[in-house]
Each structure stands twice: as C-alpha cells, then as structure tokens.
Amino acid sequence: MESCLVIGAGISGLLAGLKLHENAVNVTVIEKSRGLGGRMATRRQDGAIFDHGAQFMTTRNRQFREMVERWLGQEVVKPWYIGPQGNMRYVGAQGMTTVPKFLAKKLTVHNRQTATALAFEHNRWKVTCQKGEGGTVTHEADFLILTCPVPQSLKLLLDSEIELDYDDEVELKRIQYRRCISVLAQLNGPAGLPAPGAMDLNHPLLRWIGDNSVKGISDKPGTVTIHSSPQYAMQHWDSTDEDRIPPLLEAAKPFLKSAVEGASAHRWRYSEPTYLFKEKQPFRKPYYINDELSLGLCGDGFGGPRIEAAALSGLALGEDLMRPL
Fold it and tell me: What share of the chain is helix, strand, coil (3-state, %, to 5)?
C-alpha cells in the first residue's frame, strides 16, 4: 500500500491514519465539518468554552493509557478525576478538540469536503467530494478507510453500488445509535455541582451535567454542558430549540446553584452505538476489513461507545494493515 484515503477526522480515523503515516503510507483525511474530532467537540461562545460532545477519555486499556500519558507530557491532555473503575479520566488541555487537533498536525486533512460518491476500479479508489465553498474534487488512493458513523458509511457504499459480502452487510446494518441533545448553558455564577464538577445521572430527561469551568477548560464560571437522555432526544429531535431547551433546563435546575443567563443546543444523531459489529461473535476484531475491495471501517461502531474504544479501533486497523503478509 502506497496511499490511503480516510473519510472522517474523528479519533479513530486520525489514529489509523497516523499509524499508516508512520509506515511511509501517503495518507489523506477528508472531513465534512470545519473542525476535527467528531464527538470530541469544543465550542467557544461569548467568552466561554464548552465541551459539548464527549466529556472525557477513560484509560482502561494499557496501550491507550500509555498514549494518553505521552499526551500528558506534551500538554495535550490533563487529568480530571478518577472514575469508578480506578482509572484516571482525562480531558483535552483546552477542551476535547485539543486532542484531534494535535493528532492531525502530521496528516494532510481537507476540511469541509463531503464524500458523495465512491468508485473502486483497477484496484484503486476514487472518492468524489462536494466542497463547502462549492464545486467538487476527486481524491484517489490504493486503500479506503471509512470512520464516520456506520449508517452513513454504509449508505455511501451502497449508493455508490459497492457490493459487500452479504453477511457483512447484514451485520453492518445492525449497528444503530442512540441520540443526544446537548445544551450549552451559561449561568450567572458558579454551578455548585459536587466534586469533580459533574454528575452522571439516571434521570428521565437528563444523562449528564458538567461544569466546564471546574473541569478547567473555561475561565468563565458557570459554563455548563447538559446532555439529554436518549429517550428525550428521540421525543424532541425535530422540535425547535425554543421547545426542547426549557424542559432540560428546568430538569437541571435542582442541581444548579446559579440561574441560567443563556443557552443553546446541539443535536448528536450518532451519540453512541447500541450494537457493535459482530458483537456476539467470538474472537471478533474491533474493525472491518475487506481485502478484495481494499476497504476498512473503524470507529465506535466497531470498538465501543467510549473515546478510548474508538481510538483503539483505529489503532488496531492501522496496525493490521501494516502487518507483514
């Protein structure tokens, strides 16, 4: 393999790309958004900083823990608190997006390009992309890695008339995701959440409340991220912000010590997978490879919902591709 296209600049795609880059493969990453990281998302508004997607990284796996500890020495991440299983939970030094921005430095990344068509001809991939500023561009490579949420990857493949093995296609179609509505609320004072500045909730409307100022990424006090329950997200997915935000703020009110001054919302259609690829099969791998098509898929739909699991999925795919035959 001399070249590889990676669609999606989340942590799985970036780590898979870096593993190939370290082995002298020419890697190009295509990302439809302006930013990097997928759910490792950080937003800045009105002098405040919010992590509005993934809130932290676990470090249960030794390989990933050692990687995060290297990032700690490079001031890419910092510790937040110890989780219930005794492992440290880390956050990006300036927000969760700090990590993907760091990883992307060694890679060629094209933002605001949406893959619209695929073609595999003469053992080579051609990917046509719609550019954010208008017009199209085509990229070519020997190998293709898809890391966007599996329903999106599968639709792109099928719309492009790329034929997969029947059993693999059935398994890929089984991967579905929970939804989440994230509310970014600015309070008129400290949130007053108990240490470590966050609450993991089992509430009909709420799943998480976190204080980004206590976390150490926002200098403005009372910068709070609220995540809805999956049930609430499904019920209010198509509602306006004027309708879906107030019930979440009202539900969070008993946990907050200051009043809300303003709030906005972000919808996560693919918040976390509810089923993994070949989940019930023994000796399964946390990724998908089709050798005949020079195609690989990785991400949370193969590794699991945690950032750590998605990262390990990308690493494992990259390592497998570089393993001598």
Answer: 30, 35, 35
The first and second tokens of residue 267, run together, are 């919808």
Fold of 177-273: Polyamine Oxidase; Chain A, domain 2 (3.90.660)
φ, ψ for residue 121, nearest 5 deg:
-135, 135
Residues of the chain falling short of pLDDT 50: 325
Q: How many CB atoms lie within 10 A of CB 163?
A: 11
Rounded CA-CA distance 91/77 in Å is 6
Chain segment 242-285, per-residue pLDDT in tens: 999 999 999 999 999 999 999 999 999 999 999 999 998 888 99
Give just the sign of the alpha carbon dihedral 70, 298, 175, 39.
positive
DSSP-based three-state secondary structure for 216: coil
What residue type is 263 in one-letter code?
A
Give the span between the Cα atoms of 77 and 259, in whole angstroms: 30
**DSSP letter for each residue of 67-130:** HHHHHHHTTSEEEEEE-TTSPEEEEEBTBTTHHHHHHGGGSEEE-SEEEEEEEEETTEEEEEEE
pLDDT (0 to 100) of residue 87:
86
Q: Determine the Cα–Cα distance for residues 95 and 54; give it in Å rounded to an integer.
A: 10
CB neighbours (10 Å) of residue 121? 8
Residues of the chain with CATH 3.50.50.60: 3-43+97-176+275-322
Concatenated DSSP letters for 156-203? Answer: HHHHTTPPPPHHHHHHHHT--EEEEEEEEEEESS---PPTTTEEE---
Q: What pLDDT sits at residue 310?
A: 98
- Superfamily of domain 3-43+97-176+275-322 in CATH is FAD/NAD(P)-binding domain (3.50.50.60)
Q: Where, residue-wise, is CATH 3.90.660.10 in the chain?
A: 177-273
Q: Which pLDDT score is estimated for 258? A: 97
